[in-house]
Amino acid sequence: MRISFARWIFLATALGAALTRADDFQGATHIMPFDEDTIAYSKVKSAGPVAKLQERMDKGEVALKPDERFGYLPAVLEALKVPKSSQMLVFSKTSFQRERIDPKHPRGLYFGDNVYVGFVPGSPLLEFSEVDPKLGAVFYTFDQNVAKPRFTRHDQCLE
Predict the structure, then answer these.
(1) From CA 144, how far away is CA 3, in angstroms rounded?
(2) What is the pTM of this model?
(3) pLDDT tens, residue order, the chain (159 aa)
(4) Domain coordinates of the chain in residue numbers?
């Protein structure tokens, strides 16, 4: 069966377009300019619950104590008033820690009205997303393997 040159070009173009869209599974073709003056995402201080907890820790008003089995997770949940009963286990690889998530190590998500906490068994990092009244979603990690753990703000999840 012979295919005309025009059909060949059409098929090649359609295949190329389909492959391009497959690579871009989230639909984004560029990184959003979150630091333009209208948004200024990383230049504005957050006022959400995680930022407020870090301020209280910096002032010495709160001292988080690690648990032998779960690290700082129980103390952080209590300090942020996130109920343990909110836990759900997910196996999706949507976390930046996707290499650590598998059927034997699901990601535990805990949530309240304005904060989400992610816990992957065996990981030194806890993940946080807070709802800030001005900025919207603000993301943090909490490294449990350092002498003085603290919340570190990231824009990685915005991409």
Answers:
(1) 62
(2) 0.71
(3) 555 555 555 555 555 555 544 444 444 555 555 555 556 666 778 889 999 999 999 999 999 999 999 999 999 999 999 999 999 988 777 677 777 888 888 888 899 999 999 988 888 999 999 988 878 888 999 999 988 999 998 765 555
(4) 41-158
CB atoms within 10 A of CB 112: 16
Q: Which amino acid is at 133?
A: P
**Burial class of residue 146 (count of CB atoms within 10 Å of its CB; 0-12, 13-18, 19+):** exposed
Give buried/exposed letters for 42-68 (b at 16+ CB in 10 A, else e): eeeebebbbbebbeebeeeeeebeeee
Q: Identify the CA nearest to 106 among candidates 91, 95, 92, 117.
A: 91
